[in-house]
Amino acid sequence: MDEQQTKNNAQFPVSETQGQTQKTVEMPIKPKFENESVIKKPVEKISSLRTYKEDFDTLVKEKSISIARMTIMEEARSRELTEEVATSNTKKYTVIGFSLLLMLTGVGFGVYAYFSKIQTVPINIVAQPKLQPEIVYAENKKQIEVAGLGMGEVLSSIKKEILEAQIDYGKIENIQIVKKGTNGGIEQVSVLNLFSLLNSSAPGDLVRSLGGGYMLGVVNPLDGNRSGMLIIKVDSYQNAFAGMLGWEKGTMLRDIYEFIRGSVLDGNLLTKNFEDLVVGNQDSRILKNDSGEIVMVYGFLNNKTIAIAGNLSSFNEIIARFRNSPN
Is the pLDDT of residue 214 over 90? Predict the structure, then answer.
């Protein structure tokens, strides 16, 4: 009890007034704020946070580097980075280009090696024959190779073809006298070579007028009276006309009679003379035998073309076809 009282007195002290017995109780004054003691304590200074600005200011202060110099340094650094990137790109593109070059070179060598191993197949180029264009249309064609044949053999081959050619009535066969050309193909002999092969002695006026084109063949008219034919292109009508007149009086029968007629020359014909005759509205020259049969006829189809045949029906067939040809 006494201990409890002592505690109470300590919490609530009692003051005694002189001459009074009244006791006054002093209530403890409660602080306005429970944490007032804390608030009244002196606030400790909190250290400032470190910022980029402070670092920058410190750098400027301590190192004496101006802002302008810092800007220059940043720009230099930026240029260095750009140059480094450009250099890096250049190196990269160089490496890529070199790699592509090596790759393409390898592919090229590979392709070359592949095709080099492939056996080359030789191409046989067939030479086109060089043949005389037809002066009149011919249904049949026959080639006689003269290589290795003498003059007499060439004439015999032509005569045999005229007599034995398998052609229908009203048809013509073109006989082409050919030889091997320099390129391995065949080519038709020229008219001058033909006259040489026939051992012809045609006069110079006629030979000089020869234009190069000619056609040798067989005509089998509708009456079946077949005949050989010779059509010659000339350059000069005057020279050709004079040359034909000289030829008929000279060696024409000996030169061409046998392959035109397909028979041996009758010696009596050498005493005969050619006569004028209009055949198919065409001025012509004819030769008759002792029986009055026409055994040879020739004429100018135009100023550039001479036709020779062994009878009138064959000559008429030539005229008709010539008029229907482009010439």
Answer: yes
